[in-house]
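The step that takes the researchers longest sounds almost clerical: writing a folded protein down as plain text. The outcome of that step, for a single protein, is printed below.
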Amino acid sequence: MFEILFLGTSASAPSVHRGLSSQVIMHNEHRFLVDCGEGTQRQILQSGVGFKRLNRILLTHGHLDHILGLAGLLSTFMRWETIDYLQIYAGKSALERVRDLLHNIVLRGAKAPMPIEFVELKPGLLFDEDDFTVTAFPVQHRGSDCYGFAFEEKSRRPFLNDRATELGVPFGPERKQLVGGGSITLADGRIIHPDDVLGETQRGVKFVFIADAGRTHDLLSVCRDADAMVIEATYLDMEADMARQFGHLTAKQAATLARDAGVGHLYLTHISRRYRERDVIDEARAVFPNTTVVRDFDHHTISRQK
């Protein structure tokens, strides 16, 4: 399973109740900070999630409401050495803007407190860990080099503890070897194979994160059968023309994508202060009932929906 902690859920500018775009996505010991709007470091502190292991920052695009918090975050890291290195992933144009912000404004010739690696995003595999992957895919928004991210657990065969006990497999390294695909020989000479104690293959959790987007038809395939999807809902359908003009989505469009892609649960973020939250959720649920409009500090567990 994955977890997501929403640190900022407002669109374009902060409101009284919502900070600017930022969230932490977690899987076991792995943590990813996705976007870093102004005020993110305060939200991190207030949430209690802390700075440790926030070494990897994924930026969906280079608009200021998604990156300005990097300046404050690095400034804090210059005083508190809480991480050993920092990797920032973004499209080419976003990276250029981030380099200017950090090197020319924050550091101004000073040495960073840790090695900083700027990694240019390209569509495809970003991380391949033991039990999950992260893939970047292009998203159409204003400007170029905008990306979304798909977090997917690898398929696995569950270990059947009762069956292993029935066959006399002892607890310890023997069971680990069977899980890893190796056969073992018991003390009485019997050979136990993985197929004897492993169940049917089960797919892992699929979780898709999309920030700002101007259209959805090109996102259908990457969102297909996701257990959960996060996406913006900056406008309501009554202002669909304005949404199109500024490269954003309506709640109805986001919900339609979730419905057509067979998504398990839809989480809407990037909420404009021009609307009531109730109106956003009503518009979305009319199309896709399994919808949540998230708020700052909401913490959700993403597990298999089907």
The chain has two domains: 2-156+201-302, 161-197. The first strand starts at residue 2 and ends at 8.
